[in-house]
Amino acid sequence: MRYLDEYRDPVLARKILDEIRAATTRPWVIMEICGGQTHAIIKNAIDQLLPDMLELVHGPGCPVCVTPLELIDRAIAIAALPDVIFTSFGDMLRVPGSRRDLFVVKSLGGDVRIVYSPLDAVRIARENPHRKVVFFGVGFETTAPTTAMAVRQAKAEGLDNFFMLVSHVLVPPAMTALLESPDNRVQAYLAAGHVCTVTGWKPYEPIAEKYRVPIVVTGFEPVDLLDGILAAVKQLEKGQARVENKYARVVKRDGNLKAQQLVNEVFTVTDRKWRGLGEIARSGLCLKPEYAAFDAETFFDVTDIEVEEPPQCISGLVLQGRKKPTDCPAFGKQCTPHSPLGATMVSGEGACAAYYRYQRGNDDSGKQHDKDART
């Protein structure tokens, strides 16, 4: 706890805030990539405490949120089959498809199970040789190694009843896509520390150099985030653009080489559609040919399922940093965690869920009140 408290120290946080205020002389827009960072920022009102010229916007850093709607529908179609045991992390079960979610499938008799590791799904397949077991592999580079481990283990055991519905995506191509958008507002990034723990920060260096944007690797505690924001502001004010690591207690430049090797053994890079962003070239992972027998989309023949996003949901604009959750007319009304229109209201890392949970409105007087209460 002492180690954690060091990064939650209000005295140190106020000191860094004072440095941020002193360093900021012009308007800047900084995007935090990770949904976990978004929740920490909103929970601690960090965005409310910053100088008015400094704006934080929320990026596509929630893997549940960027999983495309048609892949949710494909998952639902597979889970509804009578001989299937469909396994997933819990946050995927309430993500709405075009007509229902996985919890509804479960309530109608589908064998849908929450697991805490992909290896749990391998065990279930081993224990149920006459059933087809599917794991919904969702996430960024952080969770891809464990998914790869499960596929490799299933192959080693010769399990022909285990399948993987893959929805792994890669962060750097999404960052590039946002920077190349004609509507881009992002001038600096806070990169997700847990992703960089696996990948290191080398993949970000070409982005910083080509697009002239500071990229600061940071953690998830208030002091971590404020320290990252300060580093980004200092670079912006000086016209610098490099990758800077402010999560040195965890992240190394080369990352976790063993985890990278495991991912490269099982997966190959492919084009991938992102919810709210569309298709991004070479932004996802798919199974290599030698592991293709474990591909659930192909085995269950669901690749032709295509659907459109609900027009009343602006989650795509939220994921691009172009809108805040409270800009949505449905926010907190037609769209709540109990009756969500989009994934950003469902996921534990979704920006809309963060705003709802911490009762963040769009009232300017509330912003001033929060500043007064916390300074």
Explain the overall architecture.
By secondary structure, the chain is α/β, with parallel strands linked by helices. The protein folds into 2 domains: 1-312, HypD, alpha/beta domain 2 (Rossmann fold, 3-Layer(aba) Sandwich); 315-369, no CATH class. It has 17 helices and 11 strands. It has helices spanning 2-6, 10-23, 35-43, 46-49, 69-79, 102-107, 118-127, 144-157, 171-180, 193-199, 205-211, 222-238, 257-266, 296-299, 315-319, 351-357, 364-374; strands at residues 28-32, 54-58, 84-88, 111-114, 132-139, 162-168, 188-192, 215-218, 243-245, 267-274, 278-287. The protein has a 5-stranded parallel β-sheet. A 4-stranded parallel β-sheet has the order 4-3-5-6, with helices on both faces. β10 (267-274) and β11 form a beta hairpin. α7 runs parallel beside α8 (144-157) and α8 packs across α13. It is globular, with a radius of gyration of 21 Å. It starts with a helix and ends with a helix. The model is unreliable at 362-375 (pLDDT under 50).
Write the layout of secondary structure elements.
Elements: H1 2-6, H2 10-23, E1 28-32, H3 35-43, H4 46-49, E2 54-58, H5 69-79, E3 84-88, H6 102-107, E4 111-114, H7 118-127, E5 132-139, H8 144-157, E6 162-168, H9 171-180, E7 188-192, H10 193-199, H11 205-211, E8 215-218, H12 222-238, E9 243-245, H13 257-266, E10 267-274, E11 278-287, H14 296-299, H15 315-319, H16 351-357, H17 364-374
Parallel strand pairs: 1-2, 1-7, 3-4, 3-5, 5-6, 7-8, 8-9
Antiparallel strand pairs: 10-11
Helix pairs in contact: 2-12, 7-8, 8-13
